[in-house]
Amino acid sequence: MTATAQTSSSAPALEVSLRQPTVADGAAIWTLVRESGALEPNTCYAYLLLATHFAGTCVVAERDGELVGFVLGYRPPTRPEAVFVWQIGVRADARGAGLGKRLLHRLIELPDAADATFLEATVGTSNQASARLFLGFARERGVACERAPGFESADFGPLEHEPEPLYRIGPLRKQETT
Ligand SMILES: CC(C)(COP(=O)(O)OP(=O)(O)OC[C@H]1O[C@@H](n2cnc3c(N)ncnc32)[C@H](O)[C@@H]1OP(=O)(O)O)[C@@H](O)C(=O)NCCC(=O)NCCS
After folding, report:
1. Is the CB of 136 under 6 A from ligand 1?
2. Alpha carbons 126 and 168: distance in angstroms, whole number
3. How far is the CA of 97 from the centre of ligand 1 (A)?
4. Across the chain, how many H-helices and E-strands are there?
5. Which has the closest alpha carbon to 107: 150, 50, 145?
6. Does the C-beta of 108 come closer than 6 Å to ligand 1?
């Protein structure tokens, strides 16, 4: 599945294609995560699992044959009405041109997410770019973005970690995109 990403009126044009990942994308996603400067890297193996077992709820963005963005999601087994964004990242040189939001719009249009009524994610309290991304996505869908307790610092045990409140966006099918 491919599509040309659109950009906001104030952003420079960004020609990328969006598609679901394959096993060949796992290591490149892992590299993007490590280069992001903001995402917690998991193992390469974890990204291989996401790119294969969970490809139905993941999207990658490609420009000139290189991966420049991704969103990794899944349907939480205990809340199948939601699609949960585990990680989303855009390469530094492709940021600020609307690609993050385009990845989220494409994610909820995938067949495996098309019946989800909420998009959820946890957002670290200091991550302004991520908060703005999800708020902007909710605004473009014309739906609410509610914040609820997600993971508290104490949940991370000995790791020093800021709280990660849960952002719950929806109901998604209230208004279809054009
Ligand atoms: C978060 C991230 C994916 C956003 O990607 P992006 O392609 O730059 O996002 P967009 O261009 O679609 O912008 C979405 C909104 O966020 C805002 N935004 C983007 N970067 C921002 C920043 N650094 N500071 C404040 N706002 C920012 C945009 O202005 C836009 O707001 P609007 O809808 O009100 O116009 C990207 O910054 C990134 O990869 N960061 C590192 C990884 C990360 O933190 N991921 C999220 C946690 S899982």
Report:
1. yes
2. 18
3. 9
4. 4, 7
5. 50
6. no
Average pLDDT over residues 6-22: 74
Domains of the chain: 17-174 (3.40.630.30)
The mean pLDDT of 94-102, rounded to a whole number, is 97
The average pLDDT across 8-13 equals 53
What is the C-alpha separation between 112 and 108, in angstroms, rounded?
A: 8
Position 170, amino acid: G
Q: Is 133 in the pocket of ligand 1 (CB under 6 A)?
A: yes
**Which alpha helices (DSSP H) does the chain contain, by range?**
26-35, 44-52, 99-109, 128-141
- With contact defined as beta carbons under 8 Å apart, do 154 and 128 qualify? no
What span, in angstroms and rounded, lies between the C-alpha atoms of 58 and 71? 6
Q: How close is the Cα of 129 to the center of ligand 1, in Å?
A: 4
CB-ligand 1 contact for 6 (6 Å cutoff): no
**Lookup result for tokens 């193992």:** 43
**75 Cα: distance to centroid of ligand 1 (angstroms):** 23
pLDDT on residue 173: 82
State the DSSP string of 146-178.
Answer: EEEEEE-GGGGTTS----EEEEEEE-GGGS---
Angle at 53 between CA 121 and CA 70, to 5 degrees: 45
pLDDT digits (tens, 9 = 90+) for 18-57: 999 999 999 999 999 999 999 999 999 999 999 999 999 9
